[in-house]
Design goal:
By secondary structure, this protein is an alpha+beta fold. Helix content is 58%, strand content 15%. It has ten helices and seven strands. The strands form three sheets. Strands 3-4-5 form a three-stranded antiparallel beta sheet. A hairpin with a 2-residue loop joins strand 3 and strand 4. Helix 2 packs antiparallel against helix 7 and helix 2 runs antiparallel to helix 10. The longest helix is centred in the last third of the chain and has 18 residues. The radius of gyration is 17 Å and the shape is globular. The mean pLDDT is 94.
């Protein structure tokens, strides 16, 4: 399963039957896509900027992100690309999961006034397996690159349903190790979310 899909499902609260991190999950998904492109060799780091390598990818969602980077007139920072188009990314991942029948969505009006979307994940077991993977990776000495990236994304992306604040504090060194292995999209994500919280507080 794609890293973006794993992140989306990991953020689902199976007890309350709703997504967490709604205000910034799109940023975490963007970072996941960039990380996966890096792992596939389609991106490289050029002095803190994301650089397409010319390697193509088969996945349509990742291909769209890669085309966006390639079309830019000059190289831009990883933070720029994590921040860019978070809402379209969220919708694209959600649509893909719906088409795969892993989730279903229902439009409704919150408080009878505001348009909103209710999400239902059909396999709670799948979510539990992803949480177990993250928990194991957080404590293990070595990790598969995708599992390490998923765990780092959960930690730096503040997916508290998967990694609590306490776990993040206690396993800080391990998280930094995994984030370093996952690549430059992770520290960029940390800064974007920090900026998001600051803007939300100011607002």
């Amino acid at each position: 399963m794609e890293l973006t899909s794993q992140v989306y499902l990991l953020a689902y609260n199976t007890e309350k039957h709703k997504l967490t991190c709604n205000g910034y999950l799109g940023y975490v998904l963007r970072a996941a896509a960039l990380t996966e492109l890096l792992q596939l060799g389609a991106l490289s780091d050029a002095d803190g900027k994301a650089k397409p390598t010319g390697v193509g990818v088969a996945d349509p969602l990742l291909a769209d992100v890669l085309r966006d980077l390639a079309a830019a007139p000059k190289l831009k920072s990883w933070k720029h690309w994590v921040h860019r188009a978070q809402t379209p990314m969220f919708r694209a991942v959600q649509q893909r999961l719906a088409e795969a029948r892993l989730i279903s969505t229902e439009r409704y009006r919150w408080l009878g006034l505001f348009p909103a979307t209710r999400v239902k994940v059909h396999s709670h077991r799948l979510v539990s397996e992803l949480r177990s993977t993250v928990s194991h990776t957080l404590g293990a000495g070595s990790a598969h690159p995708q599992e390490g990236a998923l765990t780092a994304l959960a930690a730096l992306g503040e997916i508290r349903i998967a990694i609590s604040r306490r776990q993040a504090r206690e396993r800080k060194q391990r998280i930094e190790q995994l984030a370093g292995q996952a690549g430059p999209a992770l520290p960029a994500l940390r800064k974007v979310i920090s900026d998001h919280h600051a803007a939300t507080t100011a607002g």
